[in-house]
Amino acid sequence: MVRPKKIQFTDALESILVSIWGGTKSNLDDSQIRKTRDALVEIRAIYRFKGEYKNKYPSSINYQYPKNRAGYLAAFGQRHAYLPYFHLKRIEGINPKVIPHPERKKGELVVTTIGAGAAIEAYGICFFYNEEAHRLRKLRLNLIEKIDNWIPNRHTVYDKLLKGTFPKLEVIPHDITADLTKECIPIFSNHYDTIAKSDILLIYNVMNEILTKHSKMVWKNIKFILNNIEQPLLILLVEPSAPNASPRINWIKTQLAECSNLINNMDEEEFLFDSEPLQIVYENTGVGLNDRLFGQNIDGSKPEFKTSIKRTHMACTIEPQSPVSMEQVNKQLSMLNIKRGKKGRFVRRQRIEKTFWDLYPNWDKD
Ligand SMILES: C[S@@+](CC[C@H](N)C(=O)[O-])C[C@H]1O[C@@H](n2cnc3c(N)ncnc32)[C@H](O)[C@@H]1O
Questions:
Q1: Count of domains in the chain?
Q2: Residue 116 CA: which ligand 1 atom is closest?
Q3: I need a labelling partner for 44 at 20 to 30 A (CA). Which of 77, 85, 324, 363 fits?
Q4: Atom of ligand 1 nearest to the CA of 147
Q5: What does the pLDDT look like over 92-108, one tens digit per residue?
Q6: 143 lies in the same domain as 291
Q7: Which among 155, 169, 171, 205 has a CA at the least distance from the CA of 12?
């Protein structure tokens, strides 16, 4: 059993917020709490009114600014961290066979997350696997994210939240700086080995931030990941379900449904965090983070304390296309095309005009 936890979630979250604002103290001081509360209220408003009241609320959030990172984590951090636990439990109930087993890989799991931010959702994955026993021993995280400013904050997530709760877990982060709206294939190719080993792909709360006009490029980049996996991949998607978010989400759900084995797809569900093991509590002591963020004891705006979240979600699996990588196939093909000179020596390689699929169009058909 994980319990008793070495660290309270809110204490770890406070350390992450301290790392965002900067400073050496272990707790947020009153001025930082005030700034976090204001930032939290602003982020919630952007989420609610995105695309409306044009000059007032931007259509996406720039996480280069500390106030946006702090406001985002204060507003959503705990609920987003818990989401993969519920998601995996749900999928396990529908079809336990699709859940990757770290036991089959010496306790190791490779999770790729798109729009990783602080990677707070890694917590829910770890909790799912290690709630009852120390199943997950080594977690490799491929963190695809366009904003580098998250990187130091992520390290506080590993050190305080993950190591604090799961002391025996080894976390191996792999930062992949990439903007999905641009050509990412050269970048992903540089990280080919680790991406190809992914067991789980998380698309959590990121599509909501990408304008629909970029969908073609975003899909090309995601498809590269899907085409190159070396074992079955479980894809988990969770995104806001508000009507103004749906154009940014629905296209990718449709694309995924077309090229995968669908496990489930919900337009909207309210996840409740009102009971153990993942309960969000207002400590009522005046000293806990939630008391200071959502309580009366600080003047100014008083944000609403939330213990549930509405989200659209989907889960599907993809089988690897080929038992050998395309890189290996093309290398073998180029060897076949080496020409011999008169004396039997290899003299040159012919340019390969055709791809493997041109030569063997029915190779993957039954
Ligand atoms: C709302 S945060 C989600 C963080 C985390 N996945 C979660 O569920 O809490 C969205 C993240 O996606 C990143 N993002 C937005 N557009 C992106 C893009 N085009 N390419 C890569 N990352 C992007 C943002 O910088 C941000 O860190």
A1: 2
A2: 6
A3: 85
A4: 25
A5: 999 999 999 999 999 99
A6: yes
A7: 155
